[in-house]
Amino acid sequence: MINHPTRRSILSMIGAAAGSSAMYAAMTSLGHAAESPYNGPIKLDGDPKGAKVLILGAGLAGMTAALELRAAGYEVEILEYREKAGGRCWTLHSGDSYTELGGATQKVDFAEGNYFNPGPWRIPHHHHALLDYCRRLGVTLEPFIQGNQNAYLHSSNAFDGKPMRFREINADYRGGISDLLAKATNAGALDEAVSPADREALMASLKYYGVLDDEFNYRKGDHLSAYRGWAKWPGGGADARPEPSEPIDFATVLQSKLWSKLLEDQVTDHQETMFQPVGGMDRIAAAFEKQVGDLIKYNCKVTQIRQNDGGVTVTYVGSDGTSEPRTASGDWCVCTIPFSILSQIEADLSSEMQSVVDNMPYAEGTKFGLEFKRRFWEQDEHIYGGITYTDLPITLISYPSTGYQSDGPAVLLGGYPWGAISNQFTAMSPQDRIKWALEYGSHIHPQYMDEFKTGVSVVWHRVPWTLGCYGLWRDREANYDQATKIDGRILMAGEHVSYLPAWQEGAITSALDAISRLHDRVING
Amino acid sequence: MINHPTRRSILSMIGAAAGSSAMYAAMTSLGHAAESPYNGPIKLDGDPKGAKVLILGAGLAGMTAALELRAAGYEVEILEYREKAGGRCWTLHSGDSYTELGGATQKVDFAEGNYFNPGPWRIPHHHHALLDYCRRLGVTLEPFIQGNQNAYLHSSNAFDGKPMRFREINADYRGGISDLLAKATNAGALDEAVSPADREALMASLKYYGVLDDEFNYRKGDHLSAYRGWAKWPGGGADARPEPSEPIDFATVLQSKLWSKLLEDQVTDHQETMFQPVGGMDRIAAAFEKQVGDLIKYNCKVTQIRQNDGGVTVTYVGSDGTSEPRTASGDWCVCTIPFSILSQIEADLSSEMQSVVDNMPYAEGTKFGLEFKRRFWEQDEHIYGGITYTDLPITLISYPSTGYQSDGPAVLLGGYPWGAISNQFTAMSPQDRIKWALEYGSHIHPQYMDEFKTGVSVVWHRVPWTLGCYGLWRDREANYDQATKIDGRILMAGEHVSYLPAWQEGAITSALDAISRLHDRVING
Lengths: 525, 525
What we know:
Largest sheet of chain A: 5 strands, parallel
Structural class of chain A: alpha/beta
CATH architecture of the largest domain in chain A: Alpha-Beta Complex
Shape of chain A: globular
CATH topology of the largest domain in chain A: Polyamine Oxidase, Chain A, domain 2
Oligomer: homodimer
Number of strands of chain A: 25
Number of helices of chain A: 16
CATH class of the largest domain in chain A: Alpha Beta
Largest interface: A-B, 147 and 147 residues
Helix content of chain A: 25-40%
């Protein structure tokens, strides 16, 4: 009765003979499983014979280096500017306060347990190193909702400024291009490009993909409404028949430009499944700090980095600048200080390395954490997590991916402008930033003004320990290799020394690479 | 410095004058927020003066009716066939046992805390009534991952049976049709269908949507790899530059037919965000049962339903058929017994209603809960929740949307064949079903055989209390209205009396509709 598989694949034969490990190895060699430059916990074999590594910065790069170097037998010391570890892996919790460059202090007045991640806020499924450290260090993860088809696409210049549901634009755009391509194919326009057999498969696929009717038109009906949503949604009992919705005219969809956000959750960095730590991104920093906190000297502002053939000596003062200069030294130094800061520190670097350090601008970025009295986006609009995109300067609104359906106040990300548009917020007082975030957001959620409770903002060019959001390469092809060289006895690490700028995965993998090269030098000379 | 919004929308003006409630009402009247036939908790005003309603079945429909009718002042009694409430809202937990029609008993040998939902397993974001009951009754929800771009699309007849990542087929199909439509547009094939201004927007949109190069070709490169995945993924430190992957030839994509699963997470019922209760779907049943458990008589097998102008009298025996017949009665009866069962019970129904009851086949459906020693899909293949689709008879594999990265055994849904393909499993012994689920699944995950621990299967035509998965309408247009009529003193409710067949939302909203009509009759005659 069962259709027995008519042939066994090579894989099944390998599997029968050799068990699943061999089979998985075979799959990998067929190119189907290989994916990540991270292949599990780093192995640093060989005795470093008490060599000491001085690490500058206790962000994820610095703490990764410290954790693994100590495990490999090194003596390790970390100098950290702040009073706690984590760097940009940072969460503002209820009761925290934060003073930005310029002196403005914000008290975080959120309800107990509420929080806001000013820095990284989501973890892609393919950031294998970060995920593996979360696993090893016991950080509990929950899904971060990136793509929510019931959230909005909004343009001030389309649909009279009325936000549209993502699913409406998504289905209507997909239907519109499928309809056009079916017409062109039927008209013979693709006879040269597509063989007859492929043409048949193409037409069948367009009918499915565009949700076209039997005449290959994208046209109002039940089938289509099952994708774009209904005018009246189906229910139970009497009078429960759904009513189909009216698709938007394709020319209107095109001219709205709202299609320009349809791939936001289709890029690998944003593809479902994504994660966030339960309780805030800084749970990752805290888990690392639990391991290496005893190696960290806090509140140390590095003022000078000297090196010679024998090692590295760093001078530092208290972060408030008042204490007497002290020194720390090591045989080697892993420097994770952002180049935006490092370029202002007197350091014995080669002229080539100094030039790379001096020529890296840092990205602008602003984030707003807004707390409202209730989850009106869930209660009134049925938006559970995910992101609304807008052409207003706030660029997006991201709804919390946790505590769904709970009562009481909740915090959403009220905007994440980056690049040039962020500068207007950099120049404002914290109060004005919140005022404008609310003003813009209320064009999408009119409940904003009535429901607002409190807010906090972080403009990254005013963050004292980074002076920017993440490193930008002016010419990565020309300069990247230099940044990854061992410069005398100093190695650079951090997101800025990676092809994953701004991502925690970049910081961690750059640190793993740096200490692996350092260890090789120590062991093999 | 800020671009002040140059004009205020109607909504903002309303908002300034009247606060957010008025504004939200205005939005709704503009058609932008209206969405659900469920508009919050039901209100049953007026005194039923002690009228008694007898409810048959303690699934979600029956318990919803009981909860709301008691709150409105009715006397309520529920007869339930099983030893517990919930009906198809059902979870098999470690330690449970289940005896199917035919007598085979399966012991659920999962590790402590592991479970499997044989019935409903996910909650769409627009199932407002169900979500609202979860909120009111304190059922904690977590995201159910439906669409996972790192899961597989698999066909025995394509790519030598090798599973492909969803993201690869997704990006390459989207790129392929965008490339073709751009070519057709450039060749003038759409000059009549599309105005010059729209043509420009169309080309810009295709370049974005298809990730085309400057010549509007879908061609190997970094930009494209950011969507379909990389040959070598980006990392940090030296030698971290990513390498672009090779897109699949479009004709191969078309002939693979794997595009036929690309919209699985695009239909409203499966669109992100979806939910599941923490701990198993039966947490919903348990939450209802906590409210109305005192009204339920368990282990009652209804044998006869009599009615006259004065009320309804039901005869029942013990579920094992051994006890003496007893009776229960009410002024009215809400009958949630599936028509597959009701058609076998002697009942005083109008001939029109009896005909509807007798002519509803029930859908086939089989589910496999397979427990493995470890989460190899996460550890080896980086698949966190979501669904792999296959043309093998198991049809899909759904990975657990909970406990990510945890050690120890975990349970996945090893298949969900429904319709005709399910029948082959109905005929097998539970042992053989698991054997075949493993055999088929191992074509996708060669780790299956080595890592398998234990499994359980439910074929819905062998479930004694439903004899099928959900009600199918032979001719809904002709017969639906009859099913929702008050038949003397009996009303039907359940997923089968809804436009949301198989869904819990259909059961709940049909019950709400039934009691609302019943109450109107009681109050207004």
